[in-house]
Structure formats: C-alpha cells, structure tokens
Design brief:
The protein is mainly α and 71 residues long. Helix content is 90%, strand content 0%.
Length: 71
C-alpha cells in the first residue's frame, strides 16, 4: 500500500530535516568551541613546560655552582 504524498506530508518531512540540520549545526558549534579551547590549553601547557624546564636548568646550574664551591 503506497502512502499518498500530500503537501502536508512533504512539509512535515522538510520541517523534520530542517530541525535535524539545526541540531547538527548546534553540535558542530559546540564541538568547534571545545576544539578551540583545547588548542589554547595545549599551547598554554607547552609554554608552562618550557618555563619549568628553564627553571630546572637554572636550579641545576646553581646547585652545581654551590657544590663546586664546597669542594
């Protein structure tokens, strides 16, 4: 039994597709925002690690200097 295609049926299906498209657009917006935040976080962590590495090298050099004076 074939379903009769009416303008109301077509309108209902088009509205359903448009609603789904809106939900997908919202999901893409949220996921894009998450990616942008994560990218910023990774960049910030990279900068922090570089700073910590520099601090460790400086502490190591100062400790070696102090050890050299005591010998």
């Amino acid at each position: 039994m074939a379903e009769t295609v009416t303008l109301d049926l077509v309108l209902e299906r088009v509205n359903r597709v448009l609603a789904e498209q809106g939900r997908m657009r919202d999901s893409i917006t949220v996921l894009t925002g998450i990616c942008i935040r994560l990218e910023g976080a990774v960049h910030g962590l990279t900068m922090e690690i570089a700073g910590l590495r520099s601090m460790v090298i400086d502490h190591d050099q100062r400790l070696r200097t102090l050890e050299g004076r005591q010998s």
